[in-house]
Amino acid sequence: MLKKFFYSQKIAPYVFILPFVITVLLFWVAPISNGVLLSFQDVLKDEWVGTKNYSRLLSDKNFFKAIFNSVKYMIGTLVLLIPFPMLFASLLNSKLMKRSGLFKSIYFLPALTSVVVAGTIFRLMFGEASSSLANQVIGLFGASPIKWLKGVNTSYFALLLIACWRWTGVNILYFLAGLQSIPTDLYEAASIDGASKWQQFKKISVPLIKPTTVYVLTISIYAGLSMFLESYMVFKGNNSPNNIGLTIVGYLYRQGIEKRAMGYACAVGLILLVVVMLINLVQLKITGTFDKEEK
Amino acid sequence: MKSKKIHDRYATIAMTILFIILAIMIILPIYALFIASFKPGGDLLQYGLNLNLNLERWSLDNYILLFAGKHEYWLWFLNSIILTVISVLSTLAVSAFVGYGFAAYSFKGQNVMFVIVLIILSIPLEVVMLPLYKQMSTWGLMDNYLSVILPFMANASTIFFFRQYLLGIPKSLLEAGRIDGATEYGIFFRLVVPIMKPAFAAMAILNGMSAWNNYLWPLLVIRSSSKYTLTLGLNTLINPYGDNYSLLIVGSFFSIIPIFILFVCFQKYFIEGMTAGAVKG
């Protein structure tokens, strides 16, 4: 009887998705609800503190600095890692471009490196010695050596450069995949009508790869807002001069792991979660995922 | 007509130059790491990473240190291999099972569950990392590989990929299996799994890459240096005592090699796995 129940076509789908349901309950729902509870506690003293953690956040300068840094980093990556890869992908996709496969593979290489290796390479390239690569390059233009990782703008530049190095190739691949799904006769028709390549790019490619763009935009927003390790590697730990490299997740790590203020850190995490969920809702709304799934 | 040809030719040349410059910029950091691996680690500390060849300072000392020195590098390397293989196998098995459930059936609650897949797909792990960490320590799973593997077996993005892939298989195949008397699970294991090979390959590579390079979560839950993975171990070398920098540089370079070899052999699957989410059907 039980066997028959287990093997029936009505029950089977639930057996199939059971591992996912268990994972969601154990590793997402439980920690998130636990995080909510912890955020109203002082975990070390093991007592309830009401909304004290949240009100403390509102007057915490470092928390706002972390938000500012994360948002600034995210905006930088959006500006650099969407238009340029999109343009490069269109050029690579052109019939005039030979050996584009080779370039694609080369551009993908940095994505194979771990953040530890990439961060180490860039930290040493942006070293303070006059012979570090970054200082050699500006030396060519007659500038004297800079302490790159001690200044606000120069370290921002270094972090963005790591992001560009690692993700330009991947984003090019995303956009290429989108471009290849556009029927070529659209471009042929346009060029017969006398549209220039630039017009074709603006009027055909850009609108038709919108789903890809939305996808890349969303993952870049998440990745940008939750950036931590790049900064952790470049600054050799979670402490940067004047907190110039402090991010939201870095602050969460500092409070929760380094200072053992778990309740306070959970409040930080929940705020990040709410922001991410809001972006998520907007994105699902724009792409119409809800409508599609309900049909 | 002729002028158009010439015009096209110039365009090709201009684009090729642009892409060659970009390629050089992308390769430079890896090249710098490569040449640094032949120079004394102390040079790095003193001069930073640069493109100076300084051939007179070259030696194989770092490589001798890597292969014959007294350190835990190969233990970390082995740990990373073990952890990567177990994570990939378990993630593929569990996620394929779940993905098939979503693709092959219509059942009550399916849409809600699928929206949950999509939502989880987009929550960064960092958001739940602290309570999850606390939970792992309550369960006594600290310093245990189970805490690195278990939470990610039913992986949302892998489930999503398998579901998309399996939506494409004809329902008649499943019906034929039922008529032949196969059970629901028999159909999955005997008929569906064999035709999923390309999907398995793409996801094996994607998950393998992220397991090999995983850092933040293991940093929280793995404690003893005998259990360190390569990324954790490498990062303990950033404090410049003794030979640390020599090992750091040659070890970093060497850690890219397994993935690089896989990439060269299975490039198609890398690209497929990577771009799977971008063009949703």
Automatic annotation (TrEMBL), chain A:
PROSITE patterns, from UniProt? ABC_TM1
Q: Where in the cell is it found?
A: Cell membrane
Q: What are the ABC transmembrane type-1 domain coordinates in residue numbering?
A: 67-283
Q: How does it sit in the membrane?
A: Multi-pass membrane protein
Q: Which residues form the signal peptide?
A: none
Q: Which InterPro entries has this protein been placed in? A: ABC_transporter_permease, MetI-like, MetI-like_sf
Q: Which domain of life is it from?
A: Bacteria
TM regions (residue ranges): 12-30, 73-94, 106-126, 156-177, 212-235, 261-282
One GO CC annotation, please? plasma membrane
Gene Ontology biological process terms from the UniProt entry: transmembrane transport
Query: Which keywords annotate this record?
Result: Cell membrane, Membrane, Transmembrane, Transmembrane helix, Transport
Q: Which Pfam families match?
A: BPD_transp_1 (PF00528)
Q: Which family does it belong to?
A: Belongs to the binding-protein-dependent transport system permease family.
Its recorded name reads Sugar ABC transporter permease
TrEMBL record, chain B:
Report the GO terms under cellular component.
Answer: plasma membrane
Q: Which residues cross the membrane?
A: 12-36, 73-100, 112-133, 145-166, 187-209, 245-266
Q: What is this protein called?
A: Carbohydrate ABC transporter permease
What protein family does this chain belong to? Belongs to the binding-protein-dependent transport system permease family.
Query: Organism, per UniProt?
Result: Candidatus Galacturonatibacter soehngenii
CDD domains per record:
TM_PBP2
**Topology in the membrane?**
Multi-pass membrane protein
Question: Which UniProt key words apply to this protein?
Answer: Cell membrane, Membrane, Transmembrane, Transmembrane helix, Transport
Give GO terms for biological process: transmembrane transport
Matches recorded under InterPro entries: MetI-like, MetI-like_sf
Gene3D superfamilies xrefs: MetI-like (1.10.3720.10)
Q: Which domain of life is it from?
A: Bacteria
Domain ABC transmembrane type-1 span(s) in chain numbering: 77-266
Record's subcellular location: Cell membrane
Q: Does the keyword Phosphoprotein apply?
A: no
